[in-house]
């Protein structure tokens, strides 16, 4: 059991059900009546089956030896505050905050965002706990490639901006994500984001492009399925 | 193909180049590109690639032009030095079961 200080250091306090017994036993009537667990499971299944973003990431992870099993690698839990999800590298699990995700479009985005972290964990030696630059890099990639910063999502948050607003949004969300899970000052976090921004903003794996919408994601899927032929013939 | 000279396939099916060109020029794509990069996307290369692809399939020519264009695209996607070291295989604990039955430490 990590100490309370350790929990805070790594953001585990946002996910109270991670290191404590769940309030309602899994599969119990109490769970279905008093939590959003069932709804979360249904939306997750739908996201995995229909979102081209999620499908591409699942495919890429499978090719890298990290096949994703819904019951093993995803966990629907109640979380603190307004956080929507997280990736727990210690248990190789994606946490979905069932009390904060109520729409399918939001679920699709959260699943994509967290799968990008899982994908990074799978393909590289990401030092989630002691290397803030690594953490910042994965957060930049997740904000950039998941649709978090698509125009319509920013507009819905009343963040209006046009030219290159996407990049400002990516910077801002990466910063927020780091501040939520680590005990460091805003200036220090911003400096780290700046240091790694260019490298990580340009890393579009496994999409091969920044998917601005479903069509881009579908084309990225198509490219991924076609990759053997592609690389054999260039 | 089993008999005769082995011709290489085009990197992508030719219709894919055309659909990329159409998508590139669409309103929403141009809008999102401006939103992300502050400039209009350049779509002409997709059209050239489509024409070269068709040439390749019909007359087995223009292979070099298309390959050069694609190699340039690959270079664009790999023009940074990764921050982290890539793994040789998946993390060892990815498939391990969760410790649900772990006894509580006091």
From TrEMBL, chain A:
Highest taxon of source: Eukaryota
Pfam families recorded: Peptidase_M76
Family that this chain belongs to: Belongs to the peptidase M76 family.
Organism: Sparus aurata
One cellular component term from this protein's GO annotations in UniProt: mitochondrion
Protein name, as recorded: Mitochondrial inner membrane protease ATP23
Keyword Transit peptide: no
This protein's record includes keyword Metal-binding: yes
Keywords noted in UniProt: Hydrolase, Metal-binding, Metalloprotease, Protease
Gene Ontology BP, a term: mitochondrial protein processing
Listed EC numbers: 3.4.24.-
InterPro entries, per database record: Peptidase_M76_ATP23
Alphabetized GO MF terms: metal ion binding; metalloendopeptidase activity
PANTHER family: MITOCHONDRIAL INNER MEMBRANE PROTEASE (PTHR21711), MITOCHONDRIAL INNER MEMBRANE PROTEASE ATP23 HOMOLOG (PTHR21711:SF0)
Automatic annotation (TrEMBL), chain B:
GO cellular-component term (any): synaptic cleft
Cell compartment(s), UniProt: Synaptic cleft
Coarse class of the protein's main subcellular location: other
Region described as Disordered: spans on this chain: 87-106
InterPro entries reported in the protein's UniProt record: Pants/Emi1-like (IPR021475)
Biased composition annotated in UniProt, kind: Basic and acidic residues: 90-106
Pfam (any one): PANTS-like
Spans through the membrane: none
Protein family according to the UniProt entry: Belongs to the UPF0545 family.
Protein name per UniProt: Synaptic plasticity regulator PANTS
Native organism: Sparus aurata (Gilthead sea bream)
Lineage of source species: Eukaryota, Metazoa, Chordata, Craniata, Vertebrata
């Amino acid at each position: 059991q990590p100490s309370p200080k350790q929990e805070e250091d790594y953001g585990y306090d946002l996910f109270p059900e991670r290191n404590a017994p769940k309030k309602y036993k899994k599969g119990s009537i109490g769970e279905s009546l008093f939590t959003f667990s069932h709804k979360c499971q249904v939306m997750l299944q739908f996201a995995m089956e229909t979102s081209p973003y999620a499908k591409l990431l699942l495919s890429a992870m499978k090719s890298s030896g990290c096949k994703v099993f819904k019951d093993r690698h995803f966990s629907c839990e109640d979380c603190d505050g307004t956080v929507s999800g997280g990736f727990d590298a210690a248990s190789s699990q994606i946490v979905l905050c069932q009390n904060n995700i109520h729409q399918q479009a939001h679920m699709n985005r959260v699943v994509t965002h967290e799968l990008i972290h899982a994908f990074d964990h799978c393909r590289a030696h990401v030092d989630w706990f002691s290397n803030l630059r690594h953490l910042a890099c994965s957060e930049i990639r997740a904000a950039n490639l998941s649709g978090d910063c698509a125009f319509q999502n920013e507009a819905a948050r009343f963040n209006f901006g046009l030219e290159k607003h996407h990049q400002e949004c990516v910077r801002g969300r990466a910063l927020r994500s780091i501040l939520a899970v680590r005990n460091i000052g805003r200036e220090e976090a911003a400096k780290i984001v700046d240091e790694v921004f260019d490298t990580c903003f340009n890393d579009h794996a496994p999409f091969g492009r920044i998917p601005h919408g479903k069509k881009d994601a579908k084309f990225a899927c198509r490219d991924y399925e076609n990759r053997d032929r592609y690389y054999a013939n260039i | 193909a089993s008999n005769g000279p082995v011709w290489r396939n085009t990197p992508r099916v030719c219709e894919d180049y055309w659909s990329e060109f159409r998508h590139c020029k669409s309103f929403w794509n141009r809008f999102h590109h401006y939103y992300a990069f502050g400039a209009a996307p350049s779509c002409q290369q997709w059209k050239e690639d489509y024409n070269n692809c068709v040439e390749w399939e019909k007359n087995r020519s223009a292979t070099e032009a298309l390959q050069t264009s694609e190699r340039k695209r690959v270079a664009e996607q790999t023009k940074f030095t990764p921050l982290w070291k890539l793994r040789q295989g998946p993390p060892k604990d990815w498939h391990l079961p969760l410790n649900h039955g772990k006894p509580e430490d006091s």
